[in-house]
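Q: How would the structure tokens look for this protein?
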Amino acid sequence: MTMLLHDRICAKPLVHELPYIRQYASQFMLKAGIDDAFNHELCLAIDEACTNIMIHGKKDADTLITISLEYHEDCCKVTIEDNALTFNPLEIPPQNMDEYFTKKQYGGLGMEIIRRLIDEIKYEHSQLHYPWNTLSLVKYFHTSSH
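A: Here is the predicted structure in token form.
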């Protein structure tokens, strides 16, 4: 798997940073020549993951989110790192959507959306030099044209 394009940004975990993050991800995929549908799905997954960090994981003024995007021949890889509170999003159980709508719930679908849009999701927490959460997302191109 050959990496064809790579970029990385840092942002503060503030909700008003979300448009900047979405624009960054979208521009990256446009530069890579990725189609609009794929672009929108990956941007939505990135937005949901970053929103979860911003709303649930804020720690202090030193908290950062780093987003790395890689364009490969067969996929896009996204790595989202943060030094907020330790939280494994993969521990959130899948939603029963019939029950969700029956109860007329609101919110809480971020991980469900990510699971439905992304092909591979991995989480790890490191405490080597300082604590970091790493969420890795891989979305494969399912057709020869992207």
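The chain has a mean pLDDT of 87.

Residues 36-56 form the longest helix (21 residues).

Upvote if useful.
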